Amino acid sequence: MDPIRNPYAPGAGQRPPELAGRDDQLTAFDVVLQRVARGRPERSLVLTGLRGVGKTVLLNALRSAAVRQGWGTGKLEARPDQPLRRPLSSALHQAVRELGHGRGEEVEHGLGVLRAFAERAAGSNAKLKDRWSPGITAPAVRGRADSGDIEIDLVELLTDLGGLAADAGKGLAVFIDEMQDLGPEDVSALCAACHEISQASLPVIVVGAGLPHLPAVLSASKSYSERLFSYQRIDRLGRPEADRALSAPAAEEDAEFTDDALDAMYDVTGGYPYFIQAYGKAVWDLAPGSPITGEDVAVAAPEAERELAVGFFGSRFERATPGERDYLCAMADAAVAEAERTGDDSRDPVGAVATADVAAVLGRTPQALSPARDALLKKGLVYSGERGRIAFTVPHFGRYLRDQT
Ligand SMILES: Nc1ncnc2c1ncn2[C@@H]1O[C@H](COP(=O)(O)OP(=O)(O)OP(=O)(O)O)[C@@H](O)[C@H]1O
Ligand SMILES: [Mg+2]
Q1: Which of 275, 306, 376, 391 satisfies CB 3.0 to 4.6 Å to 269 for a cystine?
Q2: CA of 32 to the centre of ligand 1 (A)
Q3: Which residue's C-alpha comes closest to atom 24 of ligand 1?
């Protein structure tokens, strides 16, 4: 069918033609926004899930919802080994600009505090030319949010900016993607700041997104974090939503899928949003015409798999060293062995495996393998949701690895 009209959108953070299966989260978020704007108690929000389930896309959709309500919003993506101060300054600068009620004295003050906060990124003794501020023209306000202790500074900054938003009758929302990559100090500061602003009933919320172990990262930092954040697991789509993600965009282009085709698609995608887009795109391009049939899916699937093998799986596998690759492959083997023991007959067991079983596959001790495991955790290729067990962050990764050999 006409590739120019192909509606599907595989890609990191690519807005899907149809945002299927996220109505509950969107509705709940609207309630949160309205409550927070009225000074009602609400928890900040954290979205967790595997690679490619649609966390970034949902985060962006929530941000749009906040913008529609007139909130000031800013977004950042955490990176390992990158301190929070700079990217957060930029995000908050954007948020204050969006609040945009002229350039009154309070706004000048708020921006001045933000500037002082940002300038600490280079250290207190930095020369003027090395100081960094996110293009803020307001003069820095000294003595607030510039102690150099990120926890103190963040509390002061969010308190001041929250006050600014409250005066405008609006709210301020900060969106943090890949939140598991924040350093321990920054996580702790962020929790403390959220704690403080919620006690002060200020209209500020943090919305985070990250891998499934993010709640563990937060609670390791502050034990009260479980009460601070409302955790939402973003998962693969159920059958009706997966069908809608394919059928609705097709209908827009006057095309449709047969029931057979939808069966076959769910079989190969497992309802994972990234796979829905990737297979959808390949099937559309290769199908001779509408309706798209089960046979078209069978013909196009290998093409989609080839592309996934390079882009989605291969690019990640390549980031692992040879020793780490052995560990990943052993995880896949251990998962299959466990599935056989428990009678799970799906080709792609998604659950976690015991690190002891992985070690047994390699004939090593778990201790000897812990450097490889830690490196993989740091690269975000695996995660540990519970002690002694480990799982892939990438859906269908085990299947991919076993197909390689
Ligand atoms: N609700 C949805 N319905 C249909 N397609 C979706 C949905 N959510 C996301 N997608 C599609 O899935 C793909 C992955 O989305 P996204 O990048 O948001 O995932 P992610 O969870 O952030 O992944 P990662 O952990 O790798 O950052 C995109 O191509 C997007 O268009
Ligand atoms: Mg993402």
Answers
A1: 275
A2: 23
A3: 51
